[in-house]
Amino acid sequence: MRKPWIVGVTGAVLAGLLLGACGDPESAPEQAPPSAAAPEPSSTTRQRAATGSPGNGGGTGGADADTGTGTGTGTTKPAPGVLYLGDSLATENQTVLGDLLKDDLGARYTSAPYSGTTLCDYLEGTADRSLVPPRDKAAALVRRLRPDYVVLQFWGNAWDYTPCMDGVTYGKARAEYFRRYTAAAEQLTDQIANAGGEHRPTIVWVLQGPDPMTPDRVRRVNALYTKQARASGDLVADAGKAVSPAADRYAWAQYLPCTAYEREHDGYCTQPGRGRTALHHDKDYLHFCLAPTTSRPRPCPVRSPGITRMAREITRAIADARTDSP
Fold it and tell me: Which of 3, 95, 101, 132 has the fewest CB atoms within 10 Å distance of its CB?
């Protein structure tokens, strides 16, 4: 088995990260970047990415295997409605995920992510202390759109400028940080369920990839999401595993071995001579878009293997759940 390409992160390099409102919850930039615009939640999904459909590229943990999802629409089930919420990772992923869900499942897809957000930002009752406006709170969107699935992707932000966290960060108050995230996960689940009523949507908790600065934090965040999903009968999608070395789920890597699909299709295996593909831009070790971070968050404008790998795992989780359901 080929040994994974893993790049260490030095203090000097970390100091130059382009955080783009989704990064290490232990420290914060001096000024919060603007939130991702979401004037109408469905507006982000009506056109295909300019780089072409990346729907067939992906893979997990550098595994050298066929990356097809096997999620064709050969079924009599109606097309699922999918709502995608989250922070800057969701902001950059939203177009690719929408294309995959529509192509593979015929999904009715809506996305309304906001960069820099936490779970509590999407809770109703926090309008005066939130980065998310009332119309885009999770429950408000569920009542309006009646989705079958609500996909939640949150890195674990807790910047001082995230008002609903009241200044609690992982670095300053670790126990309180996890207490608040646990409480918010429970409250958000309840609000989504109540908003759905008899048509209660299934929540898909997206597990995160390795954290290069606080490795144990993301492990505990993922455990929190998994526990909440089990308690409420919901789903997890281990998208983070798709961008982790096969030998170590929580080891950060800038590059991973190319999958069979990435080697066979231009633009997916970014360094074919070395048999590896880039997951992160050289100046951004936290996001997965291979274009430079901009001051205004946006869907990723270039083909980025890390985004495609994660989006495929989310799509796979929903497809599998539909196959298993009566």
Answer: 3
